[in-house]
Amino acid sequence: MLFVFSSLSFTHPATGFLLNPIFLHGLSSSLHSLFLLVVLVLCVWRKITSSAGNEAKEKPNNNTTLFKTTVFCSLGVSVFNLVLCLLNYFYWYRSGWSEEKLVTLLDLALKTVAWAVVCACLHKGFFSSGERRRFFSPFFRAWCAFYLFVSCYSFVVDIVVLYEKRLALPAQYLVSDVVSACAGLFFCYVGYFVKNEVQDTGVQEPLLSGDANGGDVLGSKETRGGDTVTPFSNAGIFSILTFSWVGPLIALGYKKTLDLEDVPQLDSGDSVIGAFPSFRDKVEADCGAINNVTTLKLVKLLVMSAWKEILYTAFLVLMNTLASYVGPYFIDSFVQYLGGHQQYENQGYVLISAFFFAKLVECLSQRHWFFRLQQVGLRIRALLVTMIYNKALTLSCQSKQGHTSGEIINFMTVDAERVGVFSWYMHDLWMVALQVTLALLILYKNLGLASIAAFVATIIVMLANIPLGSWQEKFQNKLMESKDTRMKTTSEILRNMRILKLQGWEMKFLSKITELRETEQGWLKKFVYTAAMTTFVFWGAPTFVSVVTFVTCMLIGIPLESGKILSALATFRNLQEPIYNLPDTISMIVQTKVSLDRISSFLRLDDLQSDVVERLPRGSSDTAIEVADGNFSWDLTSANPTLQNLNLKIVHGMRVAVCGTVGSGKSTLLSCVLGEVPKISGVLKVCGTKAYVPQSPWIQSGKIEDNILFGKNMDRERYEKVLEACSLKKDLEILSFGDQTVIGERGINLSGGQKQRIQIARALYQDADIYLFDDPFSAVDAHTGSHLFKECLLGHLRSKTVVYVTHQVEFLPAADLILVMKDGKITQCGKYNDLLNSGADFMELVGAHNKALSTLDSMDGATVSTEISTLEQDENVSGSPGVKENGASKDVPNCKTDDKSEQGQLVQEEEREKGRVGFAVYWKYITMAYGGALVPFILLAQTLFQVLQIGSNYWMAWATPISPDVEPPVGGRTLIEVYVALAIGSSFCILIRALLLVTAGYKTATILFNKMHFCIFRAPMSFFDSTPSGRILNRASTDQSAVDTDIPYLIGSAAFTIIQLLGIIAVMSQVAWQVFIVFIPVIAVSICYQQYYIPSARELSRIVGVCKAPIIQHFSETISGTSTIRSFDQQSRFQETNMKLTDGYSRPKFNIAGAMEWLCFRLDMLSAITFAFSLIFLISIPTGIIDPGIAGLAVTYGLNLNMIQAWVIWTLCNLENKIISVERILQYTSIPSEPPLVIEESQPDPSWPSHGEVDIQDLQVRYAPHLPLVLRGLTCTFRGGLKTGIVGRTGSGKTTLIQTLFRIVEPTAGQIMIDSINISSIGLHDLRSRLSIIPQDPTMFEGTVRNNLDPLEEYTDEQIWEALDKCQLGDEVRKKEGKLDSTVSENGENWSMGQRQLVCLGRVLLKKSKVLVLDEATASVDTATDNLIQQTLREHFSDSTVIIIAHRITSVLDSDMVLLLSQGLIEEYNSRTKLLENKSSSFAQLVAEYTMRSNSSFEKSSGH
């Protein structure tokens, strides 16, 4: 076309004026004037004719992304023309005017005004036509076409003038032409080609903003991200190339705060639900079973699962590496060209095209390579998490004891995460080799043999990394181990925080965690300082290599020319990145190998023996459970099995009771039937489905309803029956949300009895064939216990097989078969009456029970017997708990609150901050260590480094000749000496910077850790009740890790890359300040893009943080409940939930990756355009005006521009995402604290309390401001030295009263006085350390027997032995190898429930307090042990005030006073004898019922 045009113009002189610049500018200005005139006329016309209604109609499209882009673009064109107009005005003002110049200025001024008007009209919707379909009016589209025509015409003419007439044309003309032509193309595209897209947008917009005109917001919420699959899965090629598929999500995030339901679902290939089944098949095909997976096989399987993406990214890496060396290769030719050595026509344009095209390829390939690898990483992480989770569900108890839950959770949160992140580094090793090879080829072309020296220097630098790398690996390993230990302890402490608070031990345990953290910090310090040395080696590397190379050139006499030196410098800078990343890559490979080894060794652990139980098909046999010659042992290595010589046959429909003393193997027998205990020999057959109720309740966090349904569908009738049978109806009425109440972690906001009954309801609802109950009646009060036994075992389950362990002798007569156990053997079995006549073991248990009952009989016998007769009539008539309970139930609805909002729930959704991460967070972080004193020094060191580095390169470019025939300005020796001096200076700056940075980062991490942990340990109990431990652990592990290692590095990177960017801009503007004309708008557009992107990225990051905790929590719940999950055969449902949660975490991660590349792609394009413009400037400047060497230097730096610019934005965005960890930790440093531990001015006397009198005055208590009162005004006095029993239905406020006594809960009104001191006026430690408690859930910590009894190390071994003997554990401990130092496993799992309770008694005996509280302390021991505990207390606490909450009437009958609570009020409070004499008292009714029950009333019921 050019050729045709030029031949036309120069053959026909008549058409010559068409090529005249004056004519061109005149045509353009008249066209713009005409446009302005038409707009004015249209505007006036519309004012006259239009009504407000029409305008309203035309506005709706105003907020679409395309509209915004168009408005923005028109404003950009206006500003560009204004800048050009001003530049020309000042330039020509000095050099004089001409007609042509005046017309040009007029044209630019009119363009500025016209495009400003276009911008305003677009914004007001003036150019949109009334129809919904059309986007722009015909007038505007016609104007776009004219504008494009004129712009292209000018462009072609200018190029013709340049080439044909050999005229020097001002560079700004060309720039103006290019910008105008691009703008014209864009507007024509928008005006003519985007009708359909607009229509779509119109329909989607209201949905996106969530307020569709239909008004059903919920409906639209569903249609949003939640149900739609990511646009990535069906995006077109253009959309994939430019990452436009993420556009709608970023646009939505810009408008509103994103939520998880806005984030689209993953494609089936990326979703673990879609990908895992085929992966599992591959594992089975390759390894047989998962137990045979070695690290190598695991790697192979993971690679095979993503081989297509890995090959595709390998191709992209190859393209990227080749494209990145085009610049260094051509720089020498470019410098020669600028120096006037033109080899062929248009060489300049060819070189620019090569540079530009290479940049485009480099940008595109890098963006897609990064994105695809992150996609692979997410998939691999999800697969590993799922494998680890599934493995945890099948682990044998033996394997599980070797790994605590904290460690197993670490496999998931740390190791799987790290293997996922490794995908980034997958291709780095071979890429380094390729880059070094290409670099050497270019160096050989430029410097000949000196390139060998460069190669040797590179190898030396890489070798220097080997010792550093191995140290780093070692420190990393130790760091991980110490972190595991700390997390394990933290998780145990959080689980048992209540007991620590009650005992006043929390600060001691905090110091334990601090000690563990100090060990971890020791390794962290070594790790970060090694990393600092590595940084020094690698930032110094390019300088070292270039010094060695140039010195070699001098020595062997290779002439140094500026073009060749610049080419070499650009090559070294390219080499710098692989060398920089090599240590990272190596340490990443090392870390990943460690993680893969850890995961594969976990996957190889032994599973439960699958052959322990022979499962017979349902209905195939009459026998439900049969054991022949069974020997079972938890520890297969131990000489004596846990259970020996078991022979047992249970027929369908039988009720079997198991009884025996503490530690006789009752619970193990049930575990056996479940297949949990490894089998040594014998046969065990089970026929039918099972349901299991463990001794210590396992409740999932979530709704009560979900806990009961446990994966089954809702059958309302059956559900109601189950609630009735488990007497849960009343409890649900009291709870504000009924069965929709969200239970805290491990059922923390329920009483022990409620948890137990929910467990029983879960089992009943399953409708299994065989029911296994592990002493579930012990945790409920006497009345509820008998109701449960009657309704559940004798009613609901009358046709089922039931095996129940019990300590309550009164439940034995109803059994068809009773098994008496002792020392792991079944010593007797038979019916109740048969056993009574034979055998000592059974008599021992029954005898203890009768002894307890005899205290009753010694009282007024007549009272009791008449009570029994009236009560029996009641039972037969209504089965109701008696008159009093019915009367009470009428008040219940009054407790109910109408507040149905989520606010009433105890466990709230995890808070996430919204909007920007405040500057305050950054400021707090930066100034935390040494008040921020190191920050200026770090910045100064980096700035000096940058100045010295640019200085050294500038020196080389200036001081070397452009070609051999030019005289160099300085001698060779001076050249090298100055260069080496500058190089050493810059390396020294880097060393200082690296050391200061890690010092500041390490110090900050330490301060944050200590602050957060102190605040958590001082938080009130309500915080732990309403905060799942997963959230706290997440901050203590993931967020703390980020603060330890990532954030200092990122903050450093952000500052350093900005300094580098400023350095590059400075160098480029030195050569051609005109670059700023393009540079300023490009920077402005970049900032706008970043501001547009940041809201979405930030919220997505926060969503990731919030989506991670549920995975951890679900996992830790699963680990603690594996036996229950397996007994109900619910593994597959739990695996599915885990996969859903994992996908929920991957969804925002995937979109973060896409959004990141969306931004980087656009920034890369902008910097490529800037680079191209600066090159055009350089070749359009006449030869001789500028030093070619310095111009070449500018190009060398410009080659890195896009990388540095993208790196700046990437680091800033990444930093904003990571700094959220600091924000989350700071969130926990401002938890409201409990009252002070010690109040100096009101410390009680050391002997306080001397009498132990507890005086309660009008006590009112609620758990949270938005929850109803639990205690509603209690007034009573517990006399000093007396024993007071507190009884009442589950949920009547017994435990709350005790918690208030220990100030776990502060009174809302009223007060408690102990020996005339108001307990609220003294410090918490002073109070809690003077009181003693044996809690409801017996707790033991991992460690030794000694530190379980005496964690504060206050007592001698003699005193500890004495306490052990008093609580009947002395002999048990003496049997163990380590005696007092024998180990206690996590949660005390190697001790039975009863033994744990005795350890708690031992603690109390050591402490010898004046006030002792027993909170259902004898729930999990048999009657004989209970009597023993009571006797011990009578002996050693005869002069103390003892407060007993008990479900066993016998435990309370020993009391001097009895307090009966009902729904937070005192119903009765008097001496035991007075209450028993009054026949109508509730207490007398309870006692009578208990006696009646003990006299085998259940035998009669079962016979009905």
From TrEMBL:
It catalyses: ATP + H2O + xenobioticSide 1 = ADP + phosphate + xenobioticSide 2. Residues 314-591, 937-1217 form the ABC transmembrane type-1 domain. The keyword Transmembrane applies. Keywords: ATP-binding, Membrane, Nucleotide-binding, Repeat, Translocase, Transmembrane, Transmembrane helix, Transport. CDD domains: ABC_6TM_ABCC_D1 (cd18579), ABC_6TM_ABCC_D2 (cd18580), ABCC_MRP_domain1 (cd03250), ABCC_MRP_domain2 (cd03244). This is ABC-type xenobiotic transporter. It is a multi-pass membrane protein. InterPro entries: AAA+_ATPase, ABC1_TM_dom, ABC1_TM_sf, ABC_transporter-like_ATP-bd, ABC_transporter-like_CS, ABC_transporter_C-like, ABCC_6TM_D1, ABCC_6TM_D2. It is found in: Membrane. It comes from Clitoria ternatea (Butterfly pea). Residues 625-848, 1254-1488 form the ABC transporter domain.
